[in-house]
Amino acid sequence: MAHTRPRPRLALCRGYIAQGAFGLAWLTLNARGWSIGEARTAIVELAAAAADPQFDLLASAWLAVASDSAGGY
Q: Which one, 15, 21, 22, 59, has the greatest CB density within 10 A?
């Protein structure tokens, strides 16, 4: 069996957002392997696409505490 490289997290999340698969995009954001900077980009893009006021609150709260100095998760 050939080993395939996993798709970069941000590209995968953007693909799900483009398909309107917001739940899968959210699950991708909750997986390991993100830099904080890319996760910040992805959550902003997901919030804009989802246009859900409750998710906007969650995204805003996360963005308020997500520090690039943490490196990643």
A: 59
Work out how many domains the chain is built from and give that number: 1
Which residues have CB under 8 Å from 17's CB, separation 6+?
Answer: 25, 45, 46, 49
In terms of Cα–Cα distance, which of 40, 39, 22, 41 is closest to 31?
39
pLDDT in tens, 39-66: 999 999 999 999 999 999 999 999 999 9
Q: Are 38 and 9 in contact (CB under 8 A)?
A: yes
The pTM of the full predicted model, rounded to 2 decimals, is: 0.87
**Does residue 71 lie within any of the structural domains?**
no
- The answer for residues whose C-beta is within 8 angstroms of residue 11's C-beta and 6 or more apart is none
